[in-house]
Amino acid sequence: MTRNAEGALIVAAALMAAFGVALVNIAGQESIGDDVALTFFVMITAFGALHAAVRRWAPRGTPYLIPLAALLASVGLSEIYRLNREMASLQKWWILIGAGLGILTLWGLSSVGTQILRRYRYIMLLLAMVLLLLPLLPQQWPLPIRGLAVNGSRLWVSLNLGFIEMRFQPGEIVKLLIVAFLASFLAERQAALTMRTRKVGPFEFPEPRQMIPILVAWFASFGVMVYQRDLGASLLLFSAFIAMMYAATGRNTYLVVGGGLFTVGAVAAWSAFSHVQTRLEAWLAPFDNYETTGYQISNGIFAMASGSLSGTGLGLGRPSLIAFAPTDFIFAAVGEELGLVGSVLILAMYALIISVGMGIALRSRDLFRKLLAAGLTFTFGLQSLLIIGGIVRLFPLTGITLPFMSYGGSSLVANFVLIAMLIRISHEERV
Amino acid sequence: MNGPIRRLTLALLVGFSLLLANVVYIQAVATDRYRNDYRNARVQLARSERERGVMIDRNSVVLVSSERQASTFLRTYPFGDLLGHPIGFSSLLFNDRGLEAAYASDLRSKQDLTISNVIAGVLGNDLRPANLRLTLDVALQQIATEALGDQVGAVVAIEPATGAILAYVSSPGFDPAILIGGDAGPAGDTLDADPAEPLRDRVVNQLYPPGSIFKIVTTAAALESGEITIESTFPNPTALALPGSESTISNADGRSCGSGAEVSLARGFISSCNTTFAQVAMTLGTRALEAQAEAFGFGSDIPFIFPIEQSLFSPVDLTDDLPALAQTSIGQRDVRVTPLHMALMVAGIANRGQLMSPYLVSEVIDGDGQVVSLTQPELWRKASSESTALTITQLMVDAVNSGTGTNARIDGVQVAGKTGTAENPGQAPHAWFVGFAPADQPTIAIAVVVEFGGLAGDEASGGRTAAPIAQKTMERWLKP
User: Fold this and answer.
1) Predicted structure pTM score
2) pLDDT digits (tens, 9 = 90+) for B63-81
3) Does residue B114 belong to the interface with chain A, where contact is any CB pair within 8 Å?
4) Which of A28, B126, B186, B417 is the most buried (most CB within 10 A)?
5) Rounded Cα distance, A93 and B286, in Å
6) Residue B167: left (phi > 0), alpha (psi -120 to 50), or beta?
7) Catalytic member of B212, B232, B271, B461
8) pLDDT of A226-270, one tens digit each?
9) Does residue B338 form part of some domain?
10) Do A354 and B13 touch (CB under 8 A)?
11) Which domain covers residue A115, as residue numbers?
């Protein structure tokens, strides 16, 4: 596939978003208004600019990721527009900002390349820790940057610049920083980690000394997230740790130890947090606990079943009956209105992104880039898997966003940066 | 390094395959179960957003309609609990019932987004809901309900020549409006817990012993046999000893049937003498009485839009049990009937022996007011010869003029009728009246039952308790 085909697909995705908005207008018996043109303009601007940036700074980068992201974003944006006009306007801004940061990433990596991330790994780790601690800032104090409690969790930061108040979840960006740190650290120590090992029973462990930084990073990030009760993000980060250790060393020891730690952590979380028990109950028997804990999951399933094979049609279902439809449950809302056909296509698009990302990792000759690409893709894939799995009852529900589709700025921005990094890696590897 | 990365990729893609399996299960396999779950608010909203057809009575009075409220429709029942039983409801929480259930597909608007209906709309088919014209007369329904008052029971009025139901009262009634919403749970629980069972449709779903109104069947059997006429006479004891047993049968007042030593069948009918009918039945034998009961539809399903409990003659063979046969002939023992069946039976006498199939809906009317389906009266069964029916009519006329049914008399109109006081061991009797008017050209036949004597309690009888209700109802019909 060529860059020109990529451009054409971006235009197609932008047209699809505009078409989706038009359908919502028709279904609501409104005149097809400025929103159609505006949606097309935003999509073509954001993804077109990203495309242009790739042409300039990563011309040999993979052409698959931007069109896939654009398609997911256009489906998500149409559905958000259908659910909540105000959120859709904000989402358009976030798409523009996200694309902007993606471009900034491409530009930032253009002179030295991704190696720059390798060089500054401890700065990234420090930055990650600072960002992670930001939500714990007091809610009332003189500085314009404050912590914010939303729905009982302290995951948000409010930045009040006087004329505008911006809210974001630093956790989303922290994931990228930690993955980059791990890739860098593991690439550096790979030999030491695999060669100098100690045997404990059937398992081989690296020298403890080699592990210190990684354990510090793990405890710090994991601990803070658990403290903030963001268990979904904790699980994601924990899995990324284990997956990258495994990728770097090829030792099953990490999977076994990871599985053990996960079990211990899960049992501990279950006994320590009532909301974990709630989630588990809702997962196992949502319909028996309909009035209480099972309400959200039951309604997601009702919505998807009501959509059946072909869906009710955009704007013709009742996705507003789903709690948290624009954020956590966007997949159920789309499933209702676009049916099984829509659900399967969306699953296919995520599977494609995973395949492309992992393909980049597999083809990379440089270890750092290989681990970085694998780590980024794994995080992205696992996040999609966990949230959709929570909706369709494959897993207990974790309150995390669906990349590119859910409403929410932090998530969009982080995922734009993520694909920009993947594109840049593939560019560097294809000499 | 590529080995582990391949395996991680594989793990993710296996995860996505499981997602795919779950999505297919929800959206293609178990879809209907989830979609139609009563807790799925879409079900409720879809109901309320769809217009349903109107029902009108025989004089075009609107009985139930859909009122538009912004984007939804609210089913409104202007007569409340007066018509709860025949009209029924289409409810989210409770099973649909009554005409709302029986005519659900006609009453439903086809203006929805299912593919077949969208295509039908494009092809120019009428998507509006159909409307129903009922055979009921709401004014008559009102009078019958008021006459029954707070008493538990049923009133059914039928046009004898057609089987069209004019009044359909089961008391106590209920207001469908309180049962249709998603918040109707407590209201439904209250009705369910009420010992008077307001949700039971006594017209078709309650079996009662008929008492003396069953003497119509015994008389018909006697006349059809050719061996007995209304002039045939029988011994007239104060209490009739039943052969092969210690028990006796006596009359309601404990005395003999008039003064003579012998009494005619006619006298026995007019005064409703048990002693006379027990002898008639024992003379006829079980086969003749049972065959006559079957001719009137005992043990058969009555063709109707609602399921009706079958009336029972006897669960066991009575051939060798004359005492039981004697008790059966006066409508006691194991004889059980529904009020609708008794109305049909007496309408059959009024219609010269021909029982018509009952019906509640005369016309299905489309959105333009055109009648798309007209109910044709149908003969259900022939119960007796014309002469037998006319003879029984004369006996019933005499019973109203000078016998047990004098409370059913109407000034200027000849009424025919038969009372019944069905005994319940240890409890007050059920009071019955069946009849029709005018006797020579009947336009209305009626069955009234008041459970456990109603307000009169142990003092209740068919003539005292049920006949006045029939009288008021028929008078309203004959002198509007």
Assistant:
1) 0.66
2) 999 888 777 788 889 999 9
3) no
4) B417
5) 92
6) beta
7) B212
8) 677 777 888 888 888 889 989 988 888 788 878 888 888 888 888
9) yes
10) yes
11) 3-178+275-429
